[in-house]
Amino acid sequence: MTIFTESRPYKIVAGDAAGGTLSHAYLLICPDERNLRGFLKELAKLILRADERASRLIDAEAYADCRVFPAEGEKMNVSDVRDLLDDCYIKPAENERKLFVLDRVQDMLAPAQNKLLKVLEEPPANVHFLLGAAAEFPVLTTVRSRTKRLELFSFAEKDIEQYLRETYPHRADLREIAAASGGILGRAQELAEGGSVADADEEAALLALNLSPAGIPAACRKFSDRAEAVRFLQLLRLTYRNILFLKLGLEDLVRAGREEKLLRRAAKRYSQAALVRAQDKIGQTERDLKFNANLSASLEALFYGILEG
Predict the structure, then answer these.
(1) Order of strands, sheet of 127-133, starting from the edge strand that comes earlier in the sequence
(2) Hey, is 151 helix, strand or coil?
(3) What DSSP designation does 92 have?
(4) Which domain range does residue 112 map to?
């Protein structure tokens, strides 16, 4: 994935590998849940100095000396950690190193994270760990302190646009999609694979402008699908960010299309403090939904919270 190989985390790990200074454990913080697992596997290739064959096997999660936890779509639990601990004391099969990749660490419960602590602090020789989390706060401080931190919060808008042009050449609105993505590659991909980004932007702007107590039940009923609601919340958070920029007079930071007039009207409705809190509340709702909170109740609480400002 070319866009990732130009990122700071990739260059840091590449430099560590080339200089013989690899950390025994890395933690990649990246909000892009759609691509986090793929990013981790790109870093795994660097740590293991993978050739073409090994790289293919790592991508397929079939390389003997690179185990990826948990299974796709699952959450890592204590039994997975026990399996990892048993395996990490077995010598590598064909590589000089052995690597354990832990995806979505933010979803691991505290008992599972705690069980990792000793091996993270004192790993067997030639054993490395690569952890990935979409959010930092659920990762225990004790786990964080035993890893080398890597951050990838967003890509430059121009890099997102270039990636989209190579991947979705049929779309005519790729510049608008890149602007609406907030630098999150997965968000850009979802927009490019969906309908009109302008329609989605306008829908979010209309909600921000017209949100009222009487309209909250209808707004909640629109989202019976959790994945669709999460995608809309990402867009709504960016919408409130743009409204805040307009409120602050930072118009050069706003990337908006036909919904800009709606955003300007909404800026007159909210205070600066309310706009900041709205983004915080949306972020909290996104986190709650990842932990299987009730969808309708979460949205209702969010919308009332935004109005209370």
Answers:
(1) 66-69, 98-102, 127-133, 25-29, 148-151
(2) strand
(3) P
(4) 2-151
